[in-house]
Amino acid sequence: MMPPRPGAIRLATQASGARQPAPPAGLASWTPGAAAVAVLIDATQGDIQNVANVAAQLPDPSSLDPGAPVFVYPSAVRVRKGWRRILGTRRVPIPVAVRCGALLVRGYVEIGTSNAGPRGITWGYCPSERFSR
Could you say which residues of the chain have pLDDT below 70? Predict the structure, then answer.
């Protein structure tokens, strides 16, 4: 399945201090205020094997434009504290089922993934009239 190809995308994350990943969908840079959103999950405080914990970090679809795509990165970041911060941010894989389940729980529609493996990005769309039937 091919992921959506938005013209611009912005990053949403609760991981303060984490290095920004490359934008998905072949885009070269982040665009604040873009309708499409890429979510980098923060694994510092919670269990990311739990759908509810991942879903809690996704934006509310009603706060986004109808039909806007929302991408979820295949791995979360765990920001290290204190002197360990020198070692950098640790990446923690999020199972595909957890990412898809989190999008579904939050109310996203037309959920897909580009690859069933651990490196495939997952996406869903905000509900709109197009997806109401």
Answer: 1, 80-89, 116-118, 130-133
* pTM of the predicted structure, to 2 decimals: 0.87
Closest CA to 98 of 61, 56, 48: 48
Give CA–CA dist 30/107, Å, rounded.
25
Interatomic CA distance for residues 132 and 55, integer angstroms: 22
Q: What is the model's pLDDT at position 8?
A: 96
Rounded to an integer, what distance in angstroms lies between the CA atom of residue 16 and that of residue 9? 19
- Distance from C-alpha of 70 to C-alpha of 120, rounded to nearest angstrom: 14
